[in-house]
Design a protein that fits this description.
- There is one protein chain.
- This protein is elongated.
- It is mainly α.
- The chain is about 80% helix and about 0% strand.
Length: about 325
């Protein structure tokens, strides 16, 4: 064990933290291994290497992970889009501990992803999180924690847009995120911020202004190798086409999006793609298929205890009955 520990120390001294980690594990020097992972784990998150991150976390004693807010945060990020209750609890606990420590970087990360959880309907504490985020963002200069600020500005903006609270404020927040991401050279975050900026303008009925943003986002999507932001881009393009009344284009985009989601295994987006298909079916007269899709979506929302999603699907259900002329059922 002493040999492994010495090898880990030498590798850490050279800056090879990821190479040092398995040697510390072999030496059973778990606190040293945890300290090393705390220092390079965020880089794994940014590079999308959550599988490797999960493997290192599983090699550590669970008590050690639970005591460290960064390791709790990393644990959530390895299963980010599963929205598992245990993972959300880890993220909430990490935020409390970061705030107790006065760790601004960690606080920014946790706020961003807790807002994302709330936006997707898996938390009822979204409003106070938005208030805390806006207060913190206004208090920090943009040259401190630029990546973390960009991520928080984006999730704040996306939430204000998607929940319908204030698309104009959401647009401004996404533009803050875009400018920071552009300076950082972060292409996926630029694409996300531009996509939601374009969608906010679309929901406001400012179609000519939105067109320029959609065109720019399209160019970035063609350059982006990450499937998640491309999936969001297609999804919101489909909904933008609906806002313009072009349901044929919306249906075609929803079909493309479904193919991309299935190809890349983006399970968390599949639910929202099906919502797109349901709406386009309604306005193209495919009421029976829309009702079948709606039933599956309601069952899923109930199974994962997502009241926001369940309520949204019921609204679409009522729209289907209204279009069929069944006004009593639409009202119910």
């Amino acid at each position: 064990q002493a040999v492994y520990f010495k090898a880990g120390e030498l590798l850490e001294a050279r800056g090879d933290l990821e190479e040092a980690l398995p040697h510390y594990l072999q030496a059973r020097a778990y606190p040293r291994a945890a300290a090393a992972l705390e220092r390079f784990g965020l880089d794994l998150v940014k590079r999308g290497r959550t599988g490797d991150l999960s493997r290192w976390l599983q090699a550590l004693p669970p008590d050690l992970v639970r005591e460290n807010p960064w390791l709790l945060f990393f644990s959530y990020m390895t299963r980010r889009f599963q929205f598992h209750p245990e993972g959300i609890t880890n993220l909430q606990q990490a935020l409390v501990r970061f705030e107790e420590r006065g760790d601004v970087e960690g606080t920014l990360h946790c706020l961003a992803y807790l807002i994302e959880v709330g936006t997707y309907g898996f938390s009822s504490t979204l409003t106070p999180l938005l208030t805390r985020a806006e207060t913190l963002l206004q208090s920090l200069p943009p040259d401190r924690y630029p990546y973390e600020l960009a991520a928080l500005w984006f999730h704040l903006g996306a939430s204000l847009i998607m929940r319908g609270d204030s698309p104009r404020r959401g647009f401004r927040a996404c533009q803050h995120a875009y400018l920071l991401a552009r300076d950082l050279g972060d292409l996926p975050l630029q694409l996300q911020a531009l996509t939601f900026s374009a969608f906010s303008l679309t929901t406001l009925g400012e179609f000519p202004e939105a067109a320029g943003f959609w065109e720019k986002a399209g160019r970035l999507s063609a350059q982006c190798a990450h499937p998640e932001p491309r999936g969001h881009h297609l999804l919101l393009q489909a909904h933008a086409a609906m806002f313009r009344g072009d349901f044929d284009q919306a249906a075609a985009l929803a079909q493309r999006n479904e193919e991309e989601v299935q190809r890349h295994g983006l399970a968390y987006l599949y639910h929202y793609v099906q919502i797109s298909r349901m709406i386009t079916d309604i306005f193209q007269g495919n009421h029976a298929r829309a009702e079948e899709t709606g039933q599956r979506l309601c069952d899923f929302a109930a199974a994962v205890s997502n009241p926001f999603s369940y309520a949204m699907i019921l609204q679409i259900y009522s729209m289907n009955y209204y279009q069929k002329g069944e006004l009593r059922r639409a009202r119910d």
